[in-house]
């Protein structure tokens, strides 16, 4: 699909990219060489900054949200909305202040502090799988290609450089400052398209008259088991490295706690906006060949020039705010949790920034290569990412509750069993596919759930032996 943009739209989009670069490089502080400054903005993130950066980094898969809404209607709220509000609130009340109090840099740091090097290293590998930005590189490249009509490979490379180059200079502070800018743009973009669609086609009555019954059902025509499976996948929130990174960087524990709770309110508003836009796409364009292009296709139909450019900027901002965060988390994990520890330079923290920049290079090169040459693997990466949750969930969360913390050996076995059982279920599902070509997982369960059960049983058995 080629975006039909006027010269005014293109100029606005170019100005957006230029502004992101300006803000990103401008954010660098003179004392940027301090490790806490480069990795966590000096642990000085205030409440408004915390809310803006957390909200904006939560919606990188915006095209996927449009696709799901187009296919299954308002059930998108039950799948991608409500469960994340619940687990986000649990994180705020149970973990946020404890995480901030620990004064660490990463999840593997916590695993090393409470357990041992072996558990920390396995946690590092699982974290890297979880935070890979490759899917977002591909998604941004596709959108860039649509806008500028360039080759996809070139689009991926150019859009990536424009999105994360400033991280080399300003680190986490550059990430946060650009997130704040993109926070306003993503709300502005989706705030524009709904009034234009309503004015051109009609409001709620138009939607009720033109949407199929399935789109207005809370389940979207899917089984209750399917909805529950997606609901439980939201457990991801409790081990999301982006949450931990922002809590580590918050000015204090209360900033982290109340920042998450306020962010949930903004997620509710943005979810309503994205859901409504997706419903308009289904009602106005009922026969789309590519539902993943629901939002761009809607923009082509309802938006005039300038407004269309602003909407595309809103989509770009939504993807880029997540992409730069995951890229930096991946870089810190490589630099701090692998290179620094393997080289045994623990007495020289100044090296961490240098190693993190090496991590940025490694992340950029590997993610670009995956996005260009293995797009089918990238398409599966969200599923692969969920395989790491059963391994990380219990060992990570229990580190913040002394009575629940297992021994290092039990923690390692819990982590390993959770991941391996999920991986085994995933592999079997793709080996023994159903007649229509879809994976046929054992017992009809998503791969995440055998892993959760295995890790829970190992953990309970270990605690009972204690």
Automatic annotation (TrEMBL):
Topology of the protein relative to the lipid bilayer: Multi-pass membrane protein
Keyword Transmembrane: yes
GO cellular component, one term: plasma membrane
Keyword Transmembrane on entry: yes
Coiled coil: none
Origin superkingdom: Bacteria
Name of this protein: Solute:Na+ symporter, SSS family
């Amino acid at each position: 699909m080629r975006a039909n943009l006027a010269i005014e739209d293109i100029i606005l989009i170019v100005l957006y990219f230029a502004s992101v670069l300006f803000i990103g490089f401008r954010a660098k502080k003179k004392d940027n060489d301090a490790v806490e400054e480069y990795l966590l903005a000096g642990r000085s993130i205030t409440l408004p900054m915390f809310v803006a950066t957390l909200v904006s980094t939560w919606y990188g898969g915006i095209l996927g949200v449009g696709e799901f809404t187009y296919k299954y209607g308002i059930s998108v709220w039950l799948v991608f909305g409500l469960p994340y509000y619940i687990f986000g609130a649990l994180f705020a009340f149970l973990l946020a202040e404890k995480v901030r109090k620990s004064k660490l840099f990463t999840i593997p740091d916590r695993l090393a502090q409470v357990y041992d090097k072996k558990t920390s290293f396995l946690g590092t590998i699982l974290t890297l799988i979880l935070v890979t930005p490759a899917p977002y590189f591909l998604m941004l490249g596709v959108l860039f290609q649509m806008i500028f009509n360039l080759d996809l490979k070139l689009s991926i490379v150019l859009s990536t450089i424009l999105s994360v180059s400033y991280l080399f200079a300003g680190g986490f502070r550059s990430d946060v400052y650009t997130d704040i800018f993109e926070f306003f743009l993503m709300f502005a973009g989706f705030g524009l398209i709904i009034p234009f669609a309503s004015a051109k086609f009609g409001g709620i009555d138009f939607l009720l008259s033109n949407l199929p019954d399935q789109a207005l059902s809370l389940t979207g025509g899917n089984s209750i088991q399917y909805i529950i499976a997606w609901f439980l996948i939201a457990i991801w929130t409790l081990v999301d490295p982006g949450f931990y990174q922002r809590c580590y960087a918050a000015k204090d524990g209360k900033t982290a706690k109340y920042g998450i709770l306020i962010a949930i309110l903004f997620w509710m508003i943005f979810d309503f906006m994205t859901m409504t836009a997706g419903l308009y796409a289904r009602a106005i364009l009922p026969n789309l060949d590519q539902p993943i292009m629901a939002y761009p296709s809607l923009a082509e139909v309802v938006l005039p020039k300038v407004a269309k450019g602003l909407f595309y900027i809103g989509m770009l901002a939504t993807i880029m705010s997540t992409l730069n965060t995951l890229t930096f988390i991946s870089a810190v994990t490589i630099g701090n949790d692998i290179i620094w520890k393997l080289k045994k330079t623990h007495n020289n923290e100044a090296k961490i920034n240098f190693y993190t920049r090496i991590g940025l290079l490694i992340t950029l090169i590997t993610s670009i290569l995956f996005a260009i040459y293995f797009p089918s693997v990238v398409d599966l990466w969200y599923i692969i990412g969920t395989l790491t949750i059963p391994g990380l969930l219990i060992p990570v969360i229990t580190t913040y509750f002394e009575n629940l913390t297992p021994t290092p050996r039990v923690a390692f076995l819990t982590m390993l069993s959770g991941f391996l059982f999920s991986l085994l279920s995933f592999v079997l599902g793709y080996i023994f596919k159903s007649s229509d070509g879809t994976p046929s997982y054992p017992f009809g369960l998503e791969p995440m759930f055998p892993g959760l059960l295995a890790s829970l049983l190992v953990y309970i058995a270990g605690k009972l032996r204690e």
